[in-house]
Structures are given as C-alpha cells and as structure tokens.
Amino acid sequence: MSFVSRIFQSARRHTWRTLITTIIILAVAVGAYVFSRPAKPEYVTGVSERRDLIQTVEAAGTVISERDLALQFPRSGVIAEVFVKEGDTVKAGDRLAQLRAGAIAADVAAARARLDSAEADLLKMREGNRPEDIRITEAELANRRASLAAANESLQTAEDAVRSSEDALEAIEKEISTGLSGETSVALSTLSRELTVAEKSLSIIDDIWSDNDVLDAMIKDKPEEYDFIKSELFDVRTAINETRRQLSQTSGYGETLQVLGTGIGALQRASDVLTRAFTVISGLPVTGTYTNEDREAHKSSLSNERNAVQSSLHALENASANLKNAAAGYETKLINEESALSSAEGARDKALADIRTSETAVRMQEAQLALMQAGNRPSDIASAEARVRQSRAELARAGADYGDTILTAPIDGTVTAVHVKKGELSPSGATINLLGESPYRVEVFISEVDIPKVKLTQSGSIELDAFPGVHYKLRVSEIDVDTTTVDGIEKYRVKLDFLYPHDEFKIGMSGDAEIITGQRKNVITVPERAVIEDENGDTVIRVILPDGEVTRQSVETGMRGGESADIEIIKGLEEGETVILLEK
C-alpha cells in the first residue's frame, strides 16, 4: 500500500477528531479578531436648533425697604448745627444737620473767583485787543530793544578792557622773563639734574626687585607688596617722563614755576616708593638663599637712594623758592594786572548774559505784539474756553465738597432719632435716623463674573419663598460701583424696584431672583458643552455627518444662555446638525 493511501485511510478513521480541532481553531481566530479590533466610540450628542435665546443672571434676593434710613455725613467733622429733633416731619431735600465748613467755603469762593477770571479772559479774547493795548505793547518792545542796544555797547566796552588787560599782562610776563632769564635757567638745570638722580634711585629698586632670592622671599611672604611696588615704579616713571616733556617746552617765569611744581610732585612720589620698598625689604624673613647680609645690603642701598632723592627734593624746593624771591619785585604788578583782567572778563560775561536776556525779552515782546496785531486764533479761544470749563469743574468739585458738609433728607419722612449735638464730632455710624415713605425693593449681590452683564433698567423677576409659584416683575434701578464682602467673597450690590406696588410683603422676605441680561431672536443654538477649543486655540464643534464620519467645524459663538446652558452660534453651523457633547 502506498504512503498516500495510508494517510487517507488514517484521516477517514479519525474524521471526528479533525473536525473538532478545526472548529476550535476557527473559534479562537474569530474571538481574537473580535477582541483585538478597536471599539467603536460612543458619543453623547445633541442637535443644533433655531430658537429664541435668553441670558439671565440669577442670585438670591431679599426684600428691603428704604423707609428706615440711617443717615450719616460722607465726611468727618465738627457738628456746626442740628436743624431737626426727634419726631419732626421733613420733606426730601430739607437740611437736617451741618458740619463746620470754613475752609471748604473758602475753597468754593476761590474756585468761583478763578472761574470769574477765566470767563473774563475768554470775553477779552472774543472781543479782541484794543488799539491802546497794542500801542502799550509797541512801547514795551521799543524799551526792550533799547536795553539790548545798551547791553551790546557794554559788551564792546568790556571786550576792549579784556584785550587791554591781556596786552598789559603779556608785557609784564615778558618783562619778568627777561629779568629772570638767569634764574629760570638755573632752576630748569636743577630740575633736569635732580630728575636724573630720581631715575637712578628707581633703577636701584629695579635691581633689588629683580634679584631671584628677593623675589623668592617676597612670593612666599609678601606677594602683594611685590606687585604694588612694581605698579608704583611704573607710575613714578610716567610722572618723571611727563615732567621732562614739559621741561623741554618750558620758557618764561610762569611755566618754569609750573614745571618745578610738577617735578617736586614726581620726586615726592619717588621718595615714597623708596620708603615703601625699604619697609618691605626690612620685613622680609631670612631664608636659605636670602641671608641677613643680603637684606642689610639692600636696606643700605635703599636708604642711601632715599636720602639722595630727599636731597634732590630739597634742591628743587629751594630752586622754586629762589625763583619766587627773585620775582618778588614783579609780583605786585602781576597781581594787579591779573585782577584787572579778571574784572574785565567778569564785565564781559555779565554783558553777554544781559544780551541773551534782552534778546529773549525782545523776541517775546515781538511775538506778543504780532499776536495782538493778528488777533486771537480759534485755537486760543478754544483753549480759553477749556480753562473756563476746567474752572467750572473745580467750582463744582468745591461745591460738592461743601455739599458733603450738609446732611439732607433724601425722601419724605419722620425723624426717629438724632445721635449728635452741636459741637460734637460726627459719629462713624448713623447721625440721624429717618422713617420714610418709600416702596419695597429687592436687594441682590452679583459676582464679579456676572456684574458686567447687568445694566440699569433691565427686567427681572423674583419668586419669594413666602409666595411660591408667583413671579413678581422687577426692574434694575441701582448698581453699586464698589464691592461688598458677602461670606468672604467680593460681590456687587444691585437693587431692583417692583413694577407694581405690593402691600403683602414683609422686610426680609427672600427668594430666587433673576435678571434678564440679554435676548436673541430666532438664532441657532447648541448646548455649551459642544463648543471646545482645539490644539491651535480655535473654537470648534465636532459634527457627526450623515455617513457617521466625525468632522471638526470652526464656529463663531455669541451670547451664552442662562438656565438652558446653551450658546448662540453666529457662524459655522446650520440648524439640525448633530453635534458631539461628550465622548464616553
């Protein structure tokens, strides 16, 4: 029997086993496919609708009444007068009490005076300038021009005096230079010689500071002194070189005295650096390579050089003194002429200042005359009118401040209590209590988020707990500009008036109030949850198309509703489209 035949016979004998195995394999494959394929997402959806949308702001409301008023001054002060007593009947606007207001009354008077002045200036501008005013301005301009001419003459005189004094001073200096030529030559020679002595002394410091043993000892003990001395050597050599440069260009008595002073300063610095170097070397410790004999030898060299520089310094001071003594006979003439030059320069500077002042005055007077001759421009009149308005505002402000010192009855009513007497300070609380005849109102407190929506005269309603199912019509009548803390949260108080009188209310009744802050007629709306922001920051809505595909559509939103939590769609969506609110 062939091999293939044996296989077929074996398969026929085990047919049921093969079938079962095949079924199991197919079941496992189908199960793996079902459980491994992605689940189809489930959505909570809504439908865009065209309808009317109403936006409301809701808050807890309380019935109040302004019949019982606690009146107080808006500012503190001393009571000047009390005009009522308990039990008096008053009309709206009647004065109840007044504070002392002397300073405030003075402010009112001053503001009124400024207003009168501003109105007079405006009237003058509108009427124009009189011929006699123009003639007066022309005379003032002529006077300013005369002052300018006088200042120019004074400047010419002062400049002549300056030139004369400069010539005289130059002649005296030439006389001094000729008479003292021998003394100046000796002084300059002395300076050159002593500068050479100082340069030699500085080179001795260089030699010591270049010694390796000294350098090693200083690095170990006083490295900062090493750098300091090197820096000072550079500065002193710079000063000596500058002195030599001036020496090469010096001629005459005055320049010689000046360069001697520069040389004395340079040598004094050289003496100081030698003293500092001597102190540093004296304090260096003895080492294996820097012996006591080396240190004493260096100290001796530095001491000798310091003495040499000190001698040079004395020689320069003597040379300067000798030169001054030789010039003593010329000193008085020189001082007198320098004083005369200084006075002439002062007169010239004053004349220049007078000219600048006079030129400015002439330009201003010319401009004033041109303005008067041209007449007032519309912009000038407008500016004057603005000053009048400003003065009126200041008067109104001062009047308002004065009005704050008078307590008046806001409504008709009866005085129920008076808490002050004449001469007392106004209390921080109520000054006078008044029982009025005003109707009931509703008071609500609105959050910072919602208060921008609330406007005066908006409609609303309240359902009081005492009268369930009845919605009483309201209208917004007052909105506070400042916040009030309610249960630790800053809110804005809003008062609403009933459209119709109600005698059945009691003060303190409460309920749920709502204010209609916006209305849209026949607009497309969707639940606000349908509107999302994509990764680019665009406002979009996910829409399910008829074939089941989900797409994102950019939309432009409008007003948000109240209780319905719907939002207006201005652009980007049609009525009847299925939108996704939530993906499960």
Characterise this structure.
The protein is an alpha+beta fold and 584 residues long. The protein has five domains: 3-36; 45-51 and 521-583, conserved putative lor/sdh protein from methanococcus maripaludis s2 fold (Beta Barrel), CATH 2.40.420; 54-99 and 413-519, Beta Barrel (Elongation Factor Tu (Ef-tu), domain 3), CATH 2.40.30.170; 109-128 and 380-402, no CATH class; 182-326, Butyryl-CoA Dehydrogenase, subunit A, domain 3 (Up-down Bundle), CATH 1.20.140. It has eleven helices and 20 strands. The protein has helices spanning 3-13, 15-36, 102-127, 131-179, 181-210, 212-221, 223-248, 253-282, 292-326, 328-374, 378-403; strands spanning 43-47, 49-65, 68-71, 79-82, 89-90, 95-99, 406-408, 413-418, 432-436, 440-446, 459-464, 472-486, 489-498, 510-527, 531-533, 539-544, 550-554, 556-560, 566-571, 578-583. Strands 2-10-13-12-11-14 form a six-stranded antiparallel beta barrel. Strands 1, 15, 16, 17 and 20 form a five-stranded antiparallel beta sheet that branches. Strands 3-9-8-5 form a four-stranded antiparallel beta sheet, with no helix packed on it. The chain is extended, with a radius of gyration of 53 Å. The mean pLDDT is 85.
